[in-house]
Design a protein that fits this description.
By secondary structure, the chain is an alpha/beta fold. It has 10 helices and 18 strands. It is globular and about 65 Å long.
């Protein structure tokens, strides 16, 4: 038994758990993090490095993203270890009149919502040609968000953990949680087989496994794994330095109809292109509900490649070095859960799906403020109570 009684114990060592660990340890509280494998070995190691506003709905969702973007930019100077922070902005590509109309409306909604901060711009076909000579001729325009950035998610997780260790923080890897006992208000016992940890407060940041952790205290967590594929190119001349996506990506994210083949829609395939600092690039994406299956589906890989070539014809001559599939923690309303629960002292920070990297910083800050009773922002839209009538 670890005889120390921690102020806060975090379950899950992905990017969300790492961020919570850093921001909470920074307040002066004693913090422990339990990870069943190694830091960032799950979803956080099988994703891209988006820190995006462009794909967020105007309102609470976009305001949360803007706060997190500012924090991540601050972390790029605050953390000792670099994590390849770059701030190139991002683009949505529109392939038809319906998409361009919706895209331009998206720009208007966001710029109206954000007041003086006009992060969004409308792009014409000529603007696209000036941006990259590699775009397909069938594209008729697009939209741009100047506030978007890119990081290395694996390195950010390690950097946050490294910085947390400068405070009263303990990391326990290869330590799966097997049981949780709520002894009384202000005291928990968290078991990992024969090991026992004591804490005053516990945070469930277990991502796709957060429902399993919740069940240990009879709490239903409406998070479901959603599978996504990514291809990695060999080093090549970059097709573009910014994050580039097709506008149809928004449709696949929010489950809306779009113009694409039945196969593309069945697997939620939509172009996502991300240049890396090492001069290769990542290509996605797909969205499927297939349980916890992380096997690469070569049919999906073929569809992603076909979609990429449709938007970037020169990509047909590129070589790819590997592909992988990861699982994203999805919720029914596409917003994360950052919340207390019916069990006093037990909290949840999960369900970010593909937004976990970009929203990691604000999640860590808000959760640290919940631990110290200093939270001033209204985050009620993220309460787990909003799912009382939802079955997944």
């Amino acid at each position: 038994m670890d005889n120390k009684i921690y102020d806060v114990l975090i379950i899950g060592g992905g990017i969300i758990g790492a961020s919570i660990a850093y921001y909470t340890a920074k307040t002066g509280l004693s913090v422990a993090l339990l990870e069943s494998n190694t830091v960032a070995s799950g979803t956080s190691s099988k994703c891209d490095g988006n820190v995006l506003l462009i794909d967020k709905e105007p309102g609470f969702d976009s305001r949360m993203a803007i706060k997190s973007q500012a924090l991540i930019k601050q972390l790029s100077t605050e953390l000792e270890m670099e994590f390849e922070f770059r701030h190139p902005g991002s683009i949505f590509l529109c392939a038809n009149e319906d998409e361009i109309e919706q895209g331009y409306n998206w720009v208007d909604y966001h710029n109206k919502e954000n007041g003086k901060d006009k992060f969004f711009k409308k792009l014409t076909k000529e603007d696209l040609k000036n941006d990259s000579k590699y775009f397909s001729d069938h594209l008729i325009g697009g939209i741009e968000c100047t506030n978007d950035s890119t990081i290395n998610p694996y390195m950010l997780a390690f950097s946050l953990i490294n910085q947390a260790k400068k405070y009263d923080f303990s990391l326990f890897e290869m330590t799966p949680v097997t049981d949780i006992q709520h002894i009384q208000d202000g005291e928990f016992k968290v078991m990992s087989h024969e090991k026992v940890f004591k804490a005053n407060k516990v945070i469930n940041a277990a991502g796709i496994y957060s429902p399993h952790v919740g069940k240990l205290l009879d709490i239903e967590v409406p998070v479901v794994p959603r599978k996504g594929h990514i291809l990695v190119s060999s080093r090549a001349e970059l097709l573009g330095s910014r994050k580039i996506q097709e506008f149809g990506y928004l449709m696949t994210k929010f489950g809306k109809e779009r113009q694409a083949s039945k196969e593309m829609n069945d697997y939620g395939v939509a172009l996502v292109h991300e240049a890396t600092q090492s001069q290769n690039f990542l290509i996605g994406s797909s969205r499927e509900f297939v349980g916890y299956n992380t096997n690469v589906n070569h049919k999906v890989i073929r569809l992603i490649a076909e979609r990429a070539i449709e938007y970037f014809p020169p990509m047909k001559d590129m070589s790819f070095i590997r592909s992988y599939a990861g699982l994203r923690p999805w919720t029914p309303d596409n917003l994360p859960i950052i919340s207390d629960t019916v069990v006093p002292g037990f909290y949840i920070a999960a369900g970010h799906e593909g937004d976990g990297i970009g929203l990691s910083a604000i999640t860590g800050l808000w959760m640290s403020q919940m631990m110290t009773n200093t939270l001033k922002d209204d985050i009620s839209p993220l309460s787990i109570n909003r799912f009382k009538e939802v079955k997944v």
